[in-house]
């Protein structure tokens, strides 16, 4: 079961593509965490490019956006570079964040891969409390960007 609205988000340190540790869940800002299955796949690319193209909407609400997947930080670095993503990508290679947020597939529907993150979105307030949580029913679905924006506007 995924973490629910009203719960305090777990604080987990992950590495970004610049090899810096980032304490996810404790940055003192409104935060959007987007778990995505795998870099370089069609829906994941579309999702993250949507965020890239609309980053001003998140910046205008003083929110920090993080994309998180189980890919290595090196794969994520190449993906970020190729897609010109303008927000940090974090590697959950050891699957700690995906497990803590309750968004890890036992078996990914495509290719029978084990240990892939479910596409999901969480909004945390400045205190790290979950104010929005959405786990997409299938990997082909994208989160509701409108609902995320409405949540951020209310914080």
Strand and helix layout:
Blueprint: E1 12-16, E2 21-24, E3 30-35, H1 42-53, H2 55-59, E4 63-69, H3 73-83, E5 89-91, H4 96-101, E6 120-124, E7 130-135, H5 145-154
Task: Identify the notable features of this structure and list them briefly.
155 residues, globular, Glutaredoxin, seven-stranded mixed sheet
Rg on CA atoms, Å: 14 Å
What do we call the CATH topology? Glutaredoxin
CATH superfamily, please?
A: Glutaredoxin
Instruction: Give the helix proportion (percent range).
Output: 25-40%
CATH class reads Alpha Beta
Shape: globular
Residue fraction in strands: 15-25%
Q: How many independent structural domains?
A: 1
Order of helices and strands: EEEHHEHEHEEH
Structure description:
This protein is of the alpha/beta class and 155 residues long. The chain is built from five helices and seven strands, in the order E-E-E-H-H-E-H-E-H-E-E-H. The protein has a seven-stranded mixed β-sheet with strand order 2-1-5-4-3-6-7. Strand 1 and strand 2 (21-24) form a beta hairpin. The relative contact order is 0.23.
Overview in brief:
By secondary structure, the chain is of the alpha/beta class. The protein has helices spanning 42-53, 55-59, 73-83, 96-101, 145-154; strands at 12-16, 21-24, 30-35, 63-69, 89-91, 120-124, 130-135.
């Amino acid at each position: 079961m995924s973490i629910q609205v009203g719960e305090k988000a777990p604080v987990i340190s992950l590495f970004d593509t610049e090899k810096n540790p980032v304490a996810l869940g404790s940055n003192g800002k409104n935060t959007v965490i987007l778990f995505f299955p795998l870099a370089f796949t069609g829906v994941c690319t579309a999702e993250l490019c949507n965020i890239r193209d609309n980053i001003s909407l998140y910046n205008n609400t003083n929110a920090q956006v993080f994309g998180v997947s189980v890919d290595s930080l090196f794969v994520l670095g190449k993906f970020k570079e190729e897609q010109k993503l303008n927000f940090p990508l974090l590697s959950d290679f050891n699957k700690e964040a995906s497990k803590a947020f309750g968004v890890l597939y036992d078996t990914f529907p495509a290719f029978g891969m084990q240990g892939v993150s479910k596409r999901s979105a969480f909004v945390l307030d400045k205190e790290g409390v979950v104010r929005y949580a959405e786990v997409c029913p299938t990997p082909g679905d994208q989160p509701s960007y409108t609902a995320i924006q409405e949540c951020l506007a209310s914080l």
